[in-house]
Amino acid sequence: MVADPLVVFMPSGKRGHFPVGTPVLTAARRLGVDLDSVCGGRGICSKCQVSPGIGSFPKLGLTVTEDALSPWNAVEARYDEKRGLKPGRRLGCQATIQKDVVIDVPEGSQVHRQVVRKDATAREITLDAATRLMLVSVDEPDMHTPTGDLERLNRALKAQWNLDGVTAPLPVLAKLQGALRKGDWSVTVAIHHDHRDTPRLVDVWPGFYEGGIYGLAIDLGSTTIAAHLCNLQTGEVVLSSGIMNPQIRFGEDLMSRVSYAMMNPGGDVEMTRAVREALNVLIEELIADAKLEPRAVVEAVIVCNPVMHHLLLGIDPVELGQAPFALATSSALSLAMQELELTALNPAARAYLLPCIAGHVGADAAAVALSEAPGQQEALTLVVDVGTNAEILLGDRTKVLACSSPTGPAFEGAQISSGQRAAPGAIEAIRIDPDTKEPRFRVIGCDLWSDEDGFDAATKATGITGICGSGIIEAVAEMRMAGLVDASGLIGSAEQAGTPRLQPEGRTQVYVIYDDGDRRITVTQGDIRAIQLAKSALYAGARLLMDARGVDRVERIVLAGAFGAHISPLHAMVLGMIPDARLEDVSSAGNAAGTGARIALLNRAARAEIEETVTRIQKVETAIEPRFQDHFVAANALPHASDPFPELSKIVTLPDVSFNQAGQEGGRQRRRKRS
Amino acid sequence: MVADPLVVFMPSGKRGHFPVGTPVLTAARRLGVDLDSVCGGRGICSKCQVSPGIGSFPKLGLTVTEDALSPWNAVEARYDEKRGLKPGRRLGCQATIQKDVVIDVPEGSQVHRQVVRKDATAREITLDAATRLMLVSVDEPDMHTPTGDLERLNRALKAQWNLDGVTAPLPVLAKLQGALRKGDWSVTVAIHHDHRDTPRLVDVWPGFYEGGIYGLAIDLGSTTIAAHLCNLQTGEVVLSSGIMNPQIRFGEDLMSRVSYAMMNPGGDVEMTRAVREALNVLIEELIADAKLEPRAVVEAVIVCNPVMHHLLLGIDPVELGQAPFALATSSALSLAMQELELTALNPAARAYLLPCIAGHVGADAAAVALSEAPGQQEALTLVVDVGTNAEILLGDRTKVLACSSPTGPAFEGAQISSGQRAAPGAIEAIRIDPDTKEPRFRVIGCDLWSDEDGFDAATKATGITGICGSGIIEAVAEMRMAGLVDASGLIGSAEQAGTPRLQPEGRTQVYVIYDDGDRRITVTQGDIRAIQLAKSALYAGARLLMDARGVDRVERIVLAGAFGAHISPLHAMVLGMIPDARLEDVSSAGNAAGTGARIALLNRAARAEIEETVTRIQKVETAIEPRFQDHFVAANALPHASDPFPELSKIVTLPDVSFNQAGQEGGRQRRRKRS
């Protein structure tokens, strides 16, 4: 008796003997090989493409001949004619095993393929979305053994996809009968099945649905709302977009919004309505721009701070404005998007909200913890998520601490005289010559510096319109390095600092970055004060965590935030936004909260992981910690009144100027190394 | 060492030894004695009242002394002063065990007390509602170990009520923080926890809520919608009410409504809106009449036929209009009332829909099966639920068969010339003297017959306004018995039948029951034909089940339906609505579907029971069974063209008249016993 042929799947190396004639997909499923299929092996979806390896495989002790798989059949020929199969590819559900064979499963055919993150190194995402498409053949009804169409669909899902007890919301149930009959008893269903809920029917299409399904990763910030539209079958980000949080009109920072709710009966309801409307607008635009049908967008993951969390859910945030800062609920939530009145997408779409860590440390901090995984680091890592409300995490394998700090919206360009959001025309980088005190800058939408040839032509369309968050950070830091601003944050006069770009405005000075007669872009004393307040809050929060951990310095710093990727580590350290560190130990993680949302959207196991992780994070409440005030006051200076910055001083020498008229030190400019 | 005192609870007989000082409630809980408590033993709710038995209990070998329980304490004294305790009663949570004692748990203190049904004998209901009230003390938030209020409520529910994983819909969650603080960290929660869902918070009140919670048992019929408002803590029916189903304007019977949906795009949506609006009106009126707050009504059970089921759910019923009559779903459903747009009650109220048995045999038939339990009977029992669509069940312990039959609305007084719904002024009973052919009758709202003294005065307020369902059944049967109508259903002329109350109207005759010059109430030939069609459909359905069972007669008949209790068994049999049987074997069960809904509302185990029962009921599809037509035609005669009615003929001799002019038999009136 001849043994059944041996099949070896690569790259997993899983192997087994199967009778001649076994389809490759069947063999893969028996062995638990990760080979995708939406149509369940009907030769329709082409997700199960494989590449047989022909030739000699000495390590496996195998020689594979050309006839190891069955010849092309009609289904493959038709598919190739209509869509084109790459050379060497076969459909795993059609090709059957004839002889010993090595089968390569290309990455695109793996269900749980790796999604490569463009913007960070912390972790890859294994695609395993909570919502999946499945083609299923349903028995026709039989009058003599009557059962409902949903019950027969469930029987088919159990038999064909090993899925039990799928329920259907009424609007989806209302579509089921029509779809089954139109599809001649074959339908594609979108099933949501995350780590905590029972499986749920989200949508149904007659026959084989080729349109794909999508999800949204939403970072709902105090000032800006950012969303990534992701393909749930490939993990790819199709489109990203942002919108201002319209709640700004009720208060720029969180506490002023809480106050608004306290002072104005029904104010919380107004703010809930505003944020839900903005989300609907953002979602609608994203879907329209991506040229998708709204029903193709079937899921969303939302991360936000506790106040936004409560306002989104329709819960009065008043308790978050006073000790003990009790959340209404801290657990992760799985909801229908319709419960949030988010209706611009599939009406049965689900929403997942990450857990909150504490009254001031929200689901956005949890998302940062998921994305940056400080608890998995060997080096003691400080993660600073810069925003109107900053999330700060400090930890390593042994322990993770977290707090939030109310930095205000200055870092996002708000409360800044020439501030604007990051958009074409905004100054995002700036350098000031320490000798001439002349600035050069770059604007969003153009790679040239303003002193390079062609800059004027290249920026003609957008103009030069203002300064965005990363621009203002660099501007203030550069002013400090060029001796235009002293350690206390005071701007010198033209005489004191020796440049006509310093001009009086009322009783203070401004630094003119740009002036074309029409538009004048300056950094004012008020701008410096706003940045000082913001950076002091950030630093004080980080310092509080370091106190709790009992350390004076950290080994690694990750700058995150909606514009985190654009912050220059050097300038952040000159400002004293972050503690002193070696520059090579400071990295940017981009929008870590948004990335955390995307991870939770694309991988349901990550949801269980972060729900468990947050229970082990130790919370530090900045709002009632007396040392926070002390740290805050000390952090007002640029970079700091008392903390030494030895690593910074190795690479930058800050001019030792003082423009305080009372102290009679104005105008003198001494260079010395900071001790 | 002296043994701990012995405590014996009556009527359960459960016993155990407990240390001196153990509260009676604690002892009851340890022994699993059914002793109610909403406040969890805080001396607030008074639900745990017990009566200690003093004296000698020879069968138990016990003598109980006056000091067997602790003396009255301050809590009991205060409660007695404020509310009054019945003599001999103690609060089980306050009185502690001192010596051997016998404790009687009065019925009112049992959670699972029996609810006595007024209208039927089939079964008692054990109170065990899915929604319960619980008083719970919640830990205050602690800033240093932050958790959400919901999470702390859950911890308290686990500790104090052994309830795990309670979830909260957003609107309830939004109320939680305020209630906890207003109630000083003590709240009463209404928790829904049926046999299939995880527990869910339905409402929350600060402190101890004394208002009670209520549920609705709704029988959604094709013609009328009936609802019982029940107290979920006592099982008592507080109020019942009914309303016409406004879908009548789209078609009087189910198939004409299905046709309406088929012929008019969006017609199903119109009908869904109509029935939901009517339900909201009915619920709103019931709650207002009972002087309750809408939020006190926290649950509903709904039973209906498959077409109403789909229209209520918002599903196009078109598939129910054609073979194979596939339901969109046949399983029982647990929903939020808001998903059905039923908003006149608590916004988080839950709805439970009983399962459907088949495309033509709905949740109403399941409710009848639950209420009348044919599958638990020794005698072969026929249950006929009379309505516009009749549900018919035949069975005994060995097997149950079910079908439905489209009787049309004639039995509910619709399509009858003088017909009206059962309301004061409607003729509900009628007798016709076989010699004088003169009628006498009774109207709803008055116990006197029309030939009794004082009838005119007693009915002056309501007037005599028409004939309701039971009235028309009696009228036609009496006309047959008095020789005014022949076996074919033809009304004789004044000359033929010998009474001036028969008067020509066009080419046919009418019988004048009442004429005061103003209002004239008659039975027309058209009325007789409508009743004949209706009763033939009913009889044919029953006969089809008897064929399937292989029997010619049944041992017991139960007449059910919204007005089932009012149908005279004798008259029903004279008409041939039901098969021949001994009169004493025919009983009325009232609105069995409504009772089934009430059982499912008050006892969650009954939900699991009926879900299991329906899987074992054998369905017979009348719509495609050729014999149904034969049975229907043969059943047109009064009582029947061919089936013998031996039991009926023992007690009634039907005049052998024929008014067919062509047959030249008119006017001759022969009395003979039917063979």
Question: Which features characterize this protein?
Answer:
Ubiquitin-like (UB roll); alpha+beta; elongated
Write the layout of secondary structure elements.
The structure is a homodimer of 675-residue chains.
Chain A: E1 6-10, E2 15-17, H1 24-31, E3 49-53, E4 55-57, E5 62-64, H2 74-82, E6 90-91, E7 101-104, E8 114-115, E9 125-126, E10 131-137, H3 149-161, H4 170-182, E11 186-192, E12 200-206, E13 214-220, E14 224-231, E15 237-244, H5 254-263, H6 267-289, E16 297-304, H7 306-313, E17 333-336, E18 350-353, H8 363-372, E19 381-386, E20 390-396, E21 399-405, E22 426-432, E23 439-443, H9 455-458, E24 466-467, H10 469-481, H11 494-497, E25 502-505, E26 508-515, E27 520-524, H12 525-549, E28 556-561, H13 569-575, E29 586-590, H14 592-602, H15 604-616, E30 618-619, H16 626-634, H17 646-651, E31 655-657, E32 669-671
Parallel strand pairs in A: 1-7, 13-16, 16-18, 19-28, 21-30, 22-24, 28-29
Antiparallel strand pairs in A: 1-2, 3-6, 3-7, 4-5, 8-9, 10-11, 11-12, 13-14, 14-15, 17-18, 19-20, 20-21, 22-23, 25-26, 26-27, 31-32
Helix pairs in contact in A: 5-6, 8-14, 8-15, 10-13, 12-16, 14-15
Write up this protein.
Two copies of one chain form a homodimer. Chain A contains 17 helices and 32 strands. With 675 residues, the first copy, chain A, is of the alpha+beta class. In chain A, the strands form nine sheets. Chain A has a six-stranded mixed sheet, with helices on both faces. The first copy, chain A, has a six-stranded mixed sheet with strand order 29-28-19-20-21-30, with helices on both faces. In chain A, strands 2-1-7-3-6 form a five-stranded mixed sheet, with helices on one face. The A-B interface holds A 140-144, 146-151, 168-171, 173-174, 176-178, 313-316, 318-319, 323-331, 335, 339-340, 356-359, 619, 621, 624 and B 140-144, 146-151, 168-171, 173-174, 176-178, 313-316, 318-319, 323-331, 335, 339-340, 356-359, 619, 621, 624.
